[in-house]
Amino acid sequence: MPALEWGMAAEDPLDYARLVREALRDVPRQALRLAANEGLPGEHHFYLTFRTAHPGVAISPGLLARHPHDLTIILQHQFWDLAVGEDAFSVTLRFGGVPERLHVPFAALVAFADPAAQFGLHFEKTDEVEEKQASRPGEAAPEPPSAPAPEQDALPAAGNVVDIRAFRRRED
């Protein structure tokens, strides 16, 4: 039996980087489900940044023209018909007074933050998504998006390591 090496192949069922990415994407999924079912409790509100050109994202052509790479939305007071599935969420928001329905796969998320809880996550691109975007002829690569987190130190550390200090409540 050959010895295991630290650099496991991508097809390894115990691809821990993939397992952690999937687990972290469950946080906004569960938070959005709670908001869809019971409303936002207290002062909680969500900043969600997503890649607009990601496969499966459905936004109006005008919105896509104004935000060709990424878009940050805020779910706080004025959002309607929030529906959360296993792989995506849909919501109606107003842009310039005009209601627009958005459909966003969780795989398109770049960042999720709840300033009321001083909580934020930043998601790295997966190789699969980068390959799909690179295979589109005639399209420029998207620019790296910026996270809407209210406090930089509230975000987890970059890479595959999550710094637990980012999730502790601070006593001021």
Describe this structure in a few short sentences.
By secondary structure, this protein is an alpha+beta fold. The protein contains three helices and seven strands; from the N terminus they run αβαββββββα.
How does this model look, in words?
The chain has 172 residues and is α+β, with helices and mostly antiparallel strands. It has a domain of 110 residues: SspB-like (SH3 type barrels), CATH 2.30.30.220. A four-stranded antiparallel β-sheet has the order 2-1-6-7, covered by helices on one side. It has a three-stranded antiparallel β-sheet with strand order 3-4-5, with helices on one face. A hairpin with a 3-residue loop joins strand 3 and strand 4. It is globular, with a radius of gyration of 17 Å. The N and C termini lie far apart (54 Å). About 21% of the residues have low confidence.
Furnish the topology, listing elements before pairings.
Blueprint (H helix, E strand, L loop, with lengths): L15 H23 L7 E6 L9 H6 L3 E6 L4 E5 L3 E8 L2 E8 L3 E6 L4 E4 L4 H8 L38
Antiparallel strand pairs: 1-2, 1-6, 3-4, 4-5, 6-7
Provide the descriptors you would attach to this structure in a database record:
about 20% helix, globular, 3-stranded antiparallel beta sheet, alpha+beta, about 170 residues, 3 helices, 4-stranded antiparallel beta sheet, SH3 type barrels
- Amount of beta strand: 25-35%
Question: How would the global form be characterised?
Answer: globular
CATH superfamily of one domain: SspB-like
The helix tally amounts to: 3
Enumerate the strands of the largest sheet in spatial order, edge to edge or round the barrel.
Answer: 2-1-6-7
**What summary fits the major beta sheet?**
4 strands, antiparallel
What is the H/E string?
HEHEEEEEEH
Mean pLDDT: 76
